[in-house]
Amino acid sequence: MAVMCVTVLATRQSPSGTQLAVKRATLINTALASHGYKGVAANIHVQLQSLTLAQKAAISKLSESERQEMEGEIMLKAAEETLARAAAHKKQQLAQIAFHHQMLSENATNGTNSTEPAEEATVNAGEFDLSAWLNSFPDPSKWTDPMPGKGFDLSKFLKCQPTFDLSAWLRDSSKGDLMPGCPTTRLSGCEDKDFEDAPTKAKCCRVEVKHDNVWGLVCDDSGAAALAAAAKVACKAVGCKGAIRGVYSFGGPADMPIWMDNVNCLGSEPNMEDCTRLPWGEHNCGEDEAMGVCCEKGCEGWGGLE
């Protein structure tokens, strides 16, 4: 990635109109959905590591609105780079498959025996085209509900975009993680657990959801498939790449409300509250039946959310 020009970012005008704001937000969320918060955050830190002392000093003098705009531009650039790198990696993989397929064909033509199956190369892989991607989105006023029956609140979508604290990063470059704008799911009480069907321990955590500004528990009253789907939603909602498994009877504090029961997710929902379930607070379980999850790579989510 080219070195970020602070002057340009600081003076660049905000996107005009709702459509451009939605396009930027949608691109960032697409990168997050595919590669997780840590994947996009890694590219943010790559950008910032190239800043000089003079550039850091210039950033510290920006007004709050200018700094917020710059934070948005940083996130957008990181999302674009994340998607571009993924596309380039995929293109390289497809080229290797095509070469392997060609070698197998030549071996067959020359009478060489091979028991390896031929793999088909996908055509038109191409590199990630940001302009074409953005232009493919229609006017938001013509959008239909992306999740039928769940409702789509455009103002909430724009308000609850991820945040990156540039000021925190300037104070300490190990800080300033990419965070959700309006978090409603978090992981707590994480610990290593043994499972009979797994050779090693896994880092697992309790799933908690926020309702009426209060964090509460999720009951595990679900079948195995439904629990696995709910685990997938919970892990991605807290910024982890994916889920290894859901955990029955993880347990939770007795003084915590039980917000969700009979949760039935598809696995594609953005948040736990988007899954089919009983109304908030209706349940027939105790805190000992609180659901837990083991996310990929021992991911514990955001941590410290209040």
Element pattern in H and E: HHHHHHEHEEEEHEEE
The overall strand count is: 8
Instruction: Please state the overall shape, judged from the principal axes of the Cα atoms.
Output: globular
Report the radius of gyration as a whole number of Å: 23 Å
The structural class is alpha+beta
User: Mean of the pLDDT scores?
Assistant: 77
How many independent structural domains? 2
- Please bin the fraction of helical residues: 40-55%
Distance between the termini: 35 Å
**Largest sheet geometry:** 6 strands, mixed
Describe the structure.
The chain is built from 8 helices and 8 strands; from the N terminus they run ααααααβαββββαβββ. It has 306 residues and is α+β, with helices and mostly antiparallel strands. It starts with 5 loop residues before the first helix and ends in an 11-residue tail after the last strand. Strands 3, 4, 5, 6, 7 and 8 form a 6-stranded mixed β-sheet that branches. α2 (17-48) packs across α4. The protein has helices at 6-11, 17-48, 53-60, 64-109, 130-135, 154-159, 166-171, 224-237, and strands spanning 163-164, 178-179, 185-193, 202-211, 214-218, 243-247, 258-260, 292-295. It has 2 domains: 6-177, no CATH class; 185-298, Roll (Mac-2 Binding Protein), CATH 3.10.250.
